[in-house]
Amino acid sequence: MSLLVRNPDIVWRTEQRREQEVIEALERGEEVAERGTVILMFSGMMHQLNLVGGKIWALCDGSRDESAIVDLIAAEFEASREELAGDVNEFIADLLQRGWLRHDG
Which sequence spans correspond to the domains of the chain? Predict the structure, then answer.
């Protein structure tokens, strides 16, 4: 099992109010994919992650592998594991390539 760990050089925070606004918009059926809820600061640059990306980021705390993260995201968003697995794995692969995440263990 290869656990996922965030790069400790990245400063990040969840924008709580913004996250709540996005959740409410999602419940109304609005498109929210482009709305950032998590801010990352790395190498003098600011990046935003959307709601799902932010949830995945927060779960990469060194205690879970990709499979466990897919399970948790599927449960939280009431979606099938099969529906989300490819997208979650692709997102994690992108963060690994950028050096924002690493495998531990």
Answer: 3-98
